[in-house]
Every structure is written in C-alpha cells, then in structure tokens.
Automatic annotation (TrEMBL):
PANTHER family: ACETYLORNITHINE DEACETYLASE, N-ACETYL-L-CITRULLINE DEACETYLASE
Name of this chain's protein: Acetylornithine deacetylase
Keywords per UniProt: Amino-acid biosynthesis, Arginine biosynthesis, Cobalt, Cytoplasm, Hydrolase, Metal-binding, Zinc
Cofactor field: Zn(2+)
Listed GO biological process terms: L-arginine biosynthetic process
Family: Belongs to the peptidase M20A family. ArgE subfamily.
CDD domains xrefs: M20_ArgE
Species assigned in the record: Bosea psychrotolerans
Family matches, as NCBIfam families: AcOrn-deacetyl (TIGR01892), PRK07522.1 (NF005710)
Domain Peptidase M20 dimerisation: 171-282
Pfam families the record matches: M20_dimer, Peptidase_M20
Molecular function GO terms recorded: acetylornithine deacetylase activity; metal ion binding
KW DNA repair (keyword) present: no
Length: 383
C-alpha cells in the first residue's frame, strides 16, 4: 500500500480520535500499513488497553538515527461550528480542512506516507516513527512510549516533534502542570455565613492566590527572556460549585494549571500552593472539622529547554534553512524526549493558530513543505 501525504492525511482524519475516545482503530491501521511495507512496529498500550502508542524503525538498527514524533489524539469538536464534516478531509482554496489536519495528523501523515521512500533510500542511520496517545490531555502516552523506546535500545541523535510551527525550528517551550482542587465546605443558611464554611468563597481565595503569584512572576521577569509572556503563568479554567445563592456552598471544584518557563519548576509552585491550601484548611477545620481541601495533580509535562550546540537543532536548521530563534508558550511532548537525554526540537507543518479551532486546516503549501523536510532528512541519513 502506498499513499501520498494528502491521501494518508485523509485516512488519518477519518478516524475520530478525540482524547476521550480510543485511538486503537487508527493505531491498528498504522500497524497494518507498515506491515504491508515489511516494517515491523511495536505497540505500547495504555494501562487499561483502550489506547496505544506505536513506534517503528525504518532502516538499519544502529545508533544515531532520528525520531519523527507525533500524537494521534485530537481535541473535541463538540460545540464548534464546522462548515464541513470534521472527520472528512475537505479541500477548499488551497487548504485541507479536518479535525487534526494541522494538530498534528499532517506531520503524522507525512512520516507514514514517506516510508516507501525511506525503504528505497540507502539509509545509513534509521528513521524511528513514534506515534502517541493523549498528548492533548497531558502527554500521557508519550511518558511510557519514550521509556519503551529507550528500553528497546533506541539511541537517536535527534528527535523532531512535528507540532505545527510553520516549519520553523522551535528550541524551547514552557512546561505545564495541571491540577484539580476540591473544597469541601459546611453548608448553612447564608444569613449565618459566620458559622458556615462556604466552599465557593474558599475556592475564591485559592484562585486569587494564582493571580497574586502570577503578578509576582511578572514583576521579576527578565526582559531578555524570549517567551511570550516572559514569565511562568498560572490559570484557573473551570470552576463548579454551589447549589443556591442563600446556601453556603458545600462543594466547589476547580481545574487549574501552571506553565513554567525553563529555569522555573512546576513542583515549586505546587509546593507553595499546597502550603497556602494547608493554611486555609486549618481555618476551615477550626469551624467545622469535617471540611477540607484536596489537590490532585492531573498531569505534569516538563519544558523543552534550548540546548547548547544541540544536534536536533543543527539538523533541523540545515534542512529548513531557518536561522531564527524561536520559543513558544504552548507545550509538547518534546520535554519528555529531552528528559531521556535525546536532543530534541519542535518543527512541523501548519500554523498553531489553527489548532483546536472549528474548521481547522493545514495549507497544501505547508503539507508540501513538511514533505520536503522529511525527504531532506531521508537524504541526510543516507549520506
């Protein structure tokens, strides 16, 4: 079976791999496609078996190859106004529309579609294709995928994470820690709020801690920091709680995150936050002992730090001709690969502004640029 990158993208988009769903249908298609070309792949399943990562090696099993990394999950389309079916790749005015077309099945499609060219090339070093699950909800799959690849003896010289960067070479991004805080209060009539423990108002104190801490980060930010914004940010995105305006809320839950610049540590902010939680919880229990606050870490993804004379950066700049300096605020799986000691950059087709949007698209020009990049990599590894 041979498919062009556009044909492969149409196939990948046709699989609904929203993060709350299984990705196994897509992964099995990739496994079977590679097998039809004589390439063996390895599946690394999730603990419950509902999802799986996949990795495969094309070329000689030696050190010094390059990993092409992409995720297979996409964000939901619910509540979005799409002009065309999000699960059918649709071409309009030089753009290819479909959920995941940009983020990031476009890069996945290129890597898979060019396997026949890799097989025909006199590769001296291998190409490793790595496809993960659940990147969008905390880079969950990549955590076990990277470990499995390392345990299998894979030792690449470089990792290219193909998140949409308009084929610019991104050498750094922020890390992220996501949390869920649950406040259990004591409900009374609001006229006697003095003897109640209002969970929503308690949550408000903790939410305000995020604002205050971010303001402190902003105040000490360096003008030389290339990130936008140039400091670690804290954000609360979802709040749920309360039953009526005249009842002190018994429960409140909110989801929040911290995105750290390289040099800051997410665990430090978590520690400071938990210290504030402990102070407030003591005040709550003094009124009603059954009350309390729980904090769950739902995901933690390390930043990608710019490398001194990094092999992945040198390779990607050579192939793209990009000599600019690029860092981004969004996160990727890159920090997990880098944490294994593998030189890593982000470089892929498409504009990140299209990610997660209704009528998500990748331009044909960007798909072609990504294809030229991987073809250049094949030639480089064949020298």
């Amino acid at each position: 079976m041979t498919l062009t990158p556009k044909e492969m993208l149409a196939k990948l988009v046709s699989f609904n791999t929203e993060s709350q769903r299984s990705n196994l249908e897509l992964i099995h298609f990739c496994r079977d496609y590679l097998a039809s070309l004589g390439v063996e792949s390895t599946l690394v399943p999730s603990e419950d078996g509902e999802k799986a990562n996949l990795y495969a090696t094309v070329g000689p099993k030696v050190e010094g190859g390059v990993v092409l990394s992409g995720h297979t999950d996409v964000v939901p389309v619910a509540g979005q106004d799409w002009t065309s079916d999000p699960w059918t790749l649709t071409e309009r005015d030089g753009k290819l529309y479909g959920r995941g077309a940009c983020d990031m099945k476009g890069f996945d499609a290129i890597a898979l579609a060019l396997v026949p060219e890799m097989l025909k090339a006199p590769l001296k070093r291998p190409v490793h294709i790595a496809l993960s699950y659940d990147e969008e909800v905390g880079c969950l799959g990549a955590r076990i995928l990277v470990k499995a690849m390392a345990a299998a003896g894979i030792k690449p010289a470089a990792v290219i994470v193909g998140e949409p960067s308009m084929m610019q070479v991104v050498t750094g991004h922020k890390g992220g820690t996501r949390m869920r805080t649950t406040v259990k209060g004591h409900a009374v009539h609001s006229s006697r709020v003095d003897v109640g423990v209002p969970a929503v108002m308690i949550a408000g104190k903790l939410i305000e801690w995020h604002n205050q801490t971010m303001a402190e980060n902003k105040a000490r930010a360096s003008n030389e920091n290339p990130f936008e914004p140039p400091y670690s940010t804290l954000h609360v995105g979802v709040v749920q709680g309360g039953t009526a305006v005249n009842i002190t809320a018994e429960h409140c839950v909110f989801s929040h995150e911290v995105r750290v610049v390289p040099g800051d540590e997410g665990v430090d902010f978590v520690g400071r936050y938990k210290a504030r939680v402990a102070e407030i919880e003591a005040e709550m229990k003094a009124i009603a002992p059954e009350t309390g606050i729980t904090v769950e870490i739902t995901s933690a993804t390390p930043p990608l730090a710019p490398e001194q004379d990094g092999a992945a950066e040198a390779l990607s700049r050579r192939l793209t001709g990009d000599n600019g300096s690029h860092v981004v605020a969004y996160g990727t799986e890159g920090g997990l690969f880098q944490g294994e000691g593998w030189s890593t950059v982000v470089c892929g087709p498409g504009d990140i502004a299209q990610a997660h949007q209704p009528d998500e698209f990748i331009t044909i020009a960007q798909l072609e640029a990504g294809t030229a990049f991987v073809r250049g990599l094949i030639a480089d590894l064949s020298r």
